[in-house]
Automatic annotation (TrEMBL):
GO molecular function, one term: DNA binding
Domain of life, source organism: Bacteria
UniProt entry tagged with the keyword Transcription: yes
InterPro entries: HTH-type_Bedaq_tolerance, HTH_MarR-typ, Tscrpt_reg_MarR-type_CS, WH-like_DNA-bd_sf, WH_DNA-bd_sf
Organism: Luteibacter rhizovicinus DSM 16549
UniProt-recorded name of the protein: MarR family transcriptional regulator
Annotated keywords: DNA-binding, Transcription, Transcription regulation
PANTHER family: CONSERVED PROTEIN, HTH-TYPE TRANSCRIPTIONAL REGULATOR RV0880
Length: 153
């Protein structure tokens, strides 16, 4: 696959600026919603399980790019706290599947609501033109995130 020519010469600068801005927004959302109730790895597990449903330790570790032993520790703590529950794997007797409990679903809902609340308040401080631009940018960012275009080099 041939590399496409950029539309404008500042594409590298735009990419770097977008990366910085997205990183700052993620850190700010984390800071606004960090109630010390859950670790970042626990929040990632809640989000992943909400998205995928019951999952094995190995699959969860792979998806989150951590070692299975680390994921096992995280899931064990979450199980002790009543956020996840384990059931036997239906086809592999050596594994278990982990799923969200009602308490896990509620914890995930609280975190999402806190992020939504802070972000809505921040967006409300923008001008109408900035809010319109943000909606357009969000659609473009979503398209970038969904893109399967990869640089083969």
């Amino acid at each position: 696959m041939a590399k496409q020519a950029s539309v404008f010469p500042g594409v590298d600068i735009a990419a770097a600026d977008l990366l910085t801005a997205c990183g700052q927004l993620v850190r700010r959302l984390r800071a606004e919603t960090n109630n010390q109730e859950l670790s970042w790895s626990q929040l990632a597990v809640l989000a992943r399980l909400e998205e995928t449903g019951p999952t094995s330790i190995a699959d969860m570790a792979r998806a989150e790019s951590v070692k299975p032993q680390s994921m096992g520790v995280t899931l064990s703590v979450m199980e002790d706290e009543g956020l996840v529950e384990r059931t036997p794997h239906p086809t592999d007797g050596r594994q278990f599947l982990f799923a969200l409990t009602t308490a896990g679903i509620e914890a995930r809902r609280r975190v999402r609501a806190a992020k939504q609340s802070w972000l809505a308040g921040a967006v409300a401080t923008l001008t109408a033109d900035e809010q319109r631009d943000l909606l357009i940018a969000a659609a473009v960012i979503r398209r970038l995130a969904d893109s399967s275009t990869r640089d083969p080099a």
